[in-house]
Amino acid sequence: MYPEDANQPRWTASMMARYQRQMVLPQVGIEGQQRLLASRVLIVGAGALGSAAATYLAAAGVGTLGLIDGDTVDISNLHRQILHDESHIGVLKTRSGAQRLRALNPDVHIEEHPEFLSADNIIRLFSDYDLIVNGSDNFPTRYLVNDASVLLHKPLVDAAILKFERQLAVFLPGLGCYRCLFPSPPPPGTVPDCAEAGILGAVAGVLGSMQAVEALKLLVGIVPSQQGNLLLYDALSSSWHRMSFERNPDCQICGDRPTITELIDYEDFCGSRGPSTTTQTGPMNLSEFAMDTDQAAGLLKDPTVAGVDVRSPEEFRQGHIPGTQQCSMENLDKWVGNNTTHRILVICASGVRSAYAAQYLRSCGYEAWTLVGGTNAWNNTGKPWVQLESRAPEF
Ligand SMILES: [Zn+2]
After folding, report:
1. d(CA 257, CA 55)
2. What separation in Å is there between the alpha carbon of 358 and the centre of ligand 1?
3. Is the C-alpha dihedral spanning 258, 264, 266, 269 positive or negative?
4. 114 CA to centre of ligand 1 in angstroms
5. What is the SS3 assignment for 207?
6. How far apart are CA 52 and CA 73, in angstroms?
7. Are 53 and 212 spatial neighbours (Cβ–Cβ below 8 Å)?
8. For a 10 Å CB count at each end of the chain, is N or C smaller?
9. What stretch of H or E contains 231?
10. What pLDDT is stored for residue 153 in this prediction?
11. Percent above pLDDT 70 for the chain
12. Confidence class of residue 338 from pLDDT cuts 50, 70 and 90?
């Protein structure tokens, strides 16, 4: 009744009992479960995203899970990195995570890689796996993981978390990559990291769980969409925004004439060497597309520039910058299709959503900018503000 292939894991009665609820799904079945048990998945980072993703992948019976992380467990990790607990403070995250996952499901073989990912070790580490789940928390690693996945033709389930705003994308070989959407990183200082911006642990769990869902779909053989989708999750408004994307023929690494054919210096590429490059409190190193409030006010006086506020209609109604229009992220494509302007200042609450949106618009050929710090920074300066409702946002 069950496959007896020597390469397949041996079925046991406890396996049948353990996986029965997911094998009942017609998209999984015994064949899909066999595929999962024979799969090798590498998780980059045993942090907040990696904790949720690894837990569900191990529980689902992915045969081999690799964990890469050179860090040790700190008490400040515990509110969101649920692979670890207080007894593991000071222990390598890979060891702590492996112990938890082995206890959860002894069918799963856990491979520990207690090292920091770099251009020197990534090819060796990625080569052994079928699929990469990226839970890294900085831009140099994000580009490094993307480029190595493209060069090795590995599917990549990518996610990023920042404050209340999250994004998730699945990049399949030949169907576009992170660089197709974001050819260059945001300027240092324009997107605060997790320690500076703060993070709600449960929200990271939502994204990590979504990564596990997308990885499981690919592994059991559910045919993926031939068009890429970038999902943005806004926890404050409890909404998901979907933006479709295609491979960019001009992409530096997966385009028709790639200029990146081997790994590069990613710290240098992201401008993140040296101190104070990601601080919000020091002077910001703004590039040409990141506008501070004075620059944004000047831009908005230019009649060829449209101010587009990507916050939700509810947030916009509560207050907005005079002369700006509301357009949610999922409607951006439609908005630019219906408007002749090619010069757009994108605005959101904190400058995170707008940084992504501006980069996305730039990748589509528009001249787009982001307001650093968003409407929060604008209001701190006492600049003009249209207030229609005084109701506080709910969360
Ligand atoms: Zn690309």
Report:
1. 39
2. 17
3. negative
4. 29
5. helix
6. 16
7. yes
8. N
9. strand 228-234
10. 97
11. 87
12. confident
Please report which helix (H) or strand (E) contains residue 326, including its range.
Answer: strand 325-326
pLDDT tops 50 at residue 104: yes
pLDDT confidence of residue 164: 54
23: CA distance to ligand 1 center in Å? Answer: 35
What is the 18 CA–ligand 1 centroid distance (Å)?
A: 39
Please tell me the distance between residue 171's alpha carbon and the centre of ligand 1 in angstroms.
9
How many Å is the Cα radius of gyration of the chain? 22
Which contiguous run of DSSP H or E holds residue 325? strand 325-326
Residues 343, 349, 351, 353: is their CA dihedral positive or negative? negative
Q: Please give the distance, rounded to the nearest whole angstrom, from the Cα atom of residue 44 to the centre of ligand 1.
A: 20
What distance in angstroms lies between residue 168's CA and the mean position of ligand 1's atoms?
16
Predicted pLDDT of residue 227: 80
pLDDT at 395: 43
b/e for 2-40, b at 16 or more Cβ within 10 A? Answer: eeeeeeebebeeebeebbeebbeeeebeeebbbbbbbbb
* SS3 state of residue 294: helix
Question: In the CATH hierarchy, which top-level class contains the domain 39-269?
Answer: alpha beta
Poorest-confidence range of 63-67, 118-122, 235-239, 309-313? 235-239
The alpha carbon of 255 and the centre of ligand 1 are apart by a number of angstroms equal to 6
Quote the ligand 1 centre to 249 CA distance (angstroms).
8
Residue 76 CB partners (closer than 8 Å, separation 6+): none
* CA 81 – ligand 1 centroid, Å: 30
Per-residue pLDDT band at 243 (split at 50, 70, 90): confident
Distance from residue 147's CA to the centre of ligand 1 (Å)? 9
CATH 1.10.1040.10 describes domain 290-380: no
List pLDDT tens digits, range 73-93.
999 999 999 999 999 999 999
Tokens 């140099």 appear where? 140
> Ligand 1 mean position to 177 CA, how many Å?
4
Sorted by sequence, the CB contacts under 8 Å of residue 381 that are 6+ apart come out as 293, 294
d(CA 135, CA 141): 10
3-state class (DSSP) for residue 107:
coil
Distance 294 CA to ligand 1 centre (A): 34
Domain with CATH 3.40.250.10 in the chain: 290-380
